[in-house]
Design goal:
The longest helix is centred in the N-terminal third of the chain and has 34 residues. The protein is mainly α.
Length: about 550
């Protein structure tokens, strides 16, 4: 790693000073804070949708009588649309600019929120989810690039982490709103429709923000780029030096940013591989399983009250928000690599705890005390009963004192507590009393272990694996390839997100709940090993010098 020493010395020491950015935010103009806030509203929209669908789907599933496939499709439609639109966003930001794409994302998201809130049946709801996905795909690709290109080098990490802070803040706000409207008639309409408000705020606020100075230089609009830098840099900043470095990086490249040129360039090819791996392991370690289905997971752990499950999901979601502040504080102090690897290790431990809690719930689940008269639902315990997709567990009493229990055939497409409880209550094999139908869960006195696992998972994930893939991807590519590479890696993120969210409920039926989390734990462990070998430190290195970082050894272990 000796070949990187001059690069690091000039990058960290000159740009950040000896204190690693301790006073980097001193004397910055108001414009840079407004730029960060309104840009990161795109992250808020992404986070709000992620958080709100978890609580809303518990109510929507009952009202629209959705089966498992429809549940997964409605959740995943947004992700599929975001995946495709992220691929389009790369060329669009190069051709039209970063700012118009972000404005388009805000407008599209606002329209989608109105359609979702007004949906009268599941097809209309699905269309709204697709429209919202298009907006999220545009924003998730363009916002990190815009923030990275507009930020001072000493604050680039914090500025891009701000986007993730807004994502987790959006998830937390969404969880609270879900809890507030969980007992309101058709409360899910308010949950989904309110997403239009931050979209309109970003649309209005971003109308007054400038274009990325690096994009302006690439278009030959040097005077406009200088004016933008003057507005978003402190008075003592050396604008001529920064502008000359940007012009040199743009003029020194003969590439046009196409995929052929990217694959021909050895350092860019390496950077793209790393960027794709970061986005892949962020998703297949299970984060959006936890976020999209957190309320469902809490229900699976044995919490039968829907409103309580939604509020508990809000409490665990707050761990994600709080953990992002840790990442914001450490990104320019500790660096990208330690945050990423430490976060992945903590994620593995918390996934193990989640898997063990569901393993205990399965092994210690209540016995089915009365033999079933339904051939398709033969079971001796609740765990065996609820693992069969066509069956459900009925019991009389409370979780700690079950007097009678029965495994019954049930149409899970009809997720209506009254009808399913009636189905159980009509069985002459059950005693009289309050009957509970456990759709896909078993009474478990240690349900708090699953809650603790969820909270620990989010607290470990949020400082590192949450923001770092976006932060690192926004800075490791040369200017000529930045939009195209970020578009590709964002599409990888959404494609793997789609794979995970579309298969989670099915995995819980095939591998059982504990098996699904054991699988995510193994994938997180694989990611830890690969990133330990390949991930370099990028803290303090100017964007114009990133290409040099990937020109040497492919392994980045010794110095870091």
């Amino acid at each position: 790693m000796e070949e990187y020493e001059p690069l690091l010395d000039s990058g960290i020491e000159s740009a950040m000073g000896e204190d690693s950015g301790k006073d980097a935010s001193t004397n910055l103009p108001l414009a840079i804070y407004l730029l960060a806030a309104f840009s990161a509203l795109g992250g808020f929209l992404f986070g709000y949708d992620t958080g709100v669908v978890s609580g809303a789907m518990i109510l929507i599933r009952e009202e629209f009588e959705l089966n498992t496939i429809w549940h997964e499709v409605i959740v995943s439609a947004t992700i599929a649309a975001a995946w495709l639109s992220a691929l389009i966003a790369g060329p669009a930001t190069d051709y039209f600019g970063r700012r118009p794409v972000i404005l388009s994302a805000s407008l599209v998201f606002a329209v989608g929120a109105v359609v979702m809130g007004a949906a009268q049946e599941k097809i209309m709801l699905l269309i709204g989810r697709i429209i919202v996905g298009i907006g999220i795909g545009f924003a998730s690709m363009s916002v990190p690039v815009y923030l990275s290109e507009s930020s001072p080098v000493e604050l680039r990490g914090r500025m891009t982490v701000t986007n993730t802070l807004f994502i987790t803040g959006g998830q937390t706000v969404a969880s609270i709103i879900c809890g507030a409207f969980s007992t309101v008639t058709e409360g899910w309409r308010y949950m989904l429709g309110l997403a239009g408000l931050p979209a309109v705020m970003q649309l209005v606020g971003f109308s007054f923000l400038p274009e990325s100075p690096r994009w302006l230089v690439a278009q030959g609009r040097i005077r406009e780029a200088r004016d933008v830098l003057r507005k978003i840099r402190c008075e003592s900043a050396d604008l001529d030096t920064e502008l000359d470095a940007i012009k040199e990086a743009v003029s020194g490249s003969s590439h046009e940013g196409g995929i052929k040129q990217i694959l021909k360039s050895r350092p860019v090819r390496r950077a793209l591989l790393l960027g794709c791996l970061l986005q892949l392991f962020q998703q297949i370690s299970g984060i959006n399983t936890v976020m999209y289905y957190s309320a469902s997971i809490i229900t699976m752990a044995g919490v039968s009250d829907k409103s309580l499950a939604i509020w508990l999901a809000a409490a665990t979601s707050s761990m994600n928000f709080l953990g992002t502040f840790i990442g914001l504080w450490l990104v320019e102090r500790l660096g990208r690599r330690p945050l990423t690897l430490g976060s992945l290790f903590g994620t593995m431990v918390s996934l193990l705890l989640l898997a063990l809690s569901f393993q205990m719930a399965y092994n210690d689940s209540p016995n089915v005390s009365v033999p079933s008269t339904v051939p398709d639902c033969q079971a001796d315990t609740c765990g065996v009963c609820t693992s069969q997709s066509a069956c459900g567990f009925c019991y009389v009493g409370d979780n700690s004192n079950i007097t009678s229990s029965f495994c019954v055939a049930a149409d899970h497409a009809s997720y209506n507590e009254m009808s399913t409880s009636g189905l159980c209550a009509n069985s002459s094999l059950l005693d009289s009393g309050t009957v509970t139908f456990a759709y896909d869960w078993c009474p478990f006195q240690y349900a708090w272990l699953s809650l603790m696992g969820l909270a620990l998972y989010l607290l470990c994930f949020s400082p590192g694996m949450g923001p770092m893939p976006w932060t690192i991807n926004s800075e490791i590519y040369p200017g000529w390839a930045r939009s195209s590479c970020t578009s590709i890696t964002t599409a990888v993120n959404w494609a793997s997100n789609l794979l995970v969210s579309l298969t989670f409920l099915t995995l819980t039926e095939v591998l059982l709940k504990q098996g699904a989390f054991y699988l995510y734990m193994g994938l997180a462990g694989l990611g830890f090993v690969i990133l330990f070998l390949l991930l370099p430190e990028t803290r303090g290195i100017p964007l114009e010098n990133m290409e040099k970082l990937f020109s040497g050894s492919v392994f980045h272990i010794s110095r870091w």
